[in-house]
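User: Fold this; tokens only.

Assistant: Input:
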Amino acid sequence: MKYKMLNVRDIATIAMCIAIAVVLGKAVGIFHKILPFSRGIINAPFFSFIIAMMLYKVRKPGAVSLFGIGYGFMMARMSMFGTISIAVGGIAADIIISIILRDFTSDMKIAIFSPIYSICGIISTFIMTTFFIKSSLYSFGGTIVMVLSAASVYVAGAIGAFLAMKLYRTRIGKCLPN
């Protein structure tokens, strides 16, 4: 279980994924206004797709942490609490994914575990809004609601991650050098 360090190419891939996430976040924000679903359920397929594609290319621990920290810093203009929540969620997801995956060779395992990023985002947001932001505007409604939200976010995220696996296997994986 020996891992190589992230190199410049890996960091460039992560940076491109962060840029895509920022632009996609703006586009997905439109859906938040017109669809009556939770933000997490709308965001999960898109972010799980990005995380899965990033892991298919990078295949090293630390990638999700760097993504979370970088994306968190890009969102700092919105809220410092959001930045902390995104970064902590990314780091927690990376730890969980790295421990469970052990190696990043299986495309199927990457697709199964990519939605963990979105789940960790939901949990870190729950903790942040419960303990640090005392506003009814950001109320989650309790632990049961958070667990149900995390489960639905995983299902929605799995859809995006498996679409990424299909795209990677059929199109992108054949074109890119490792």
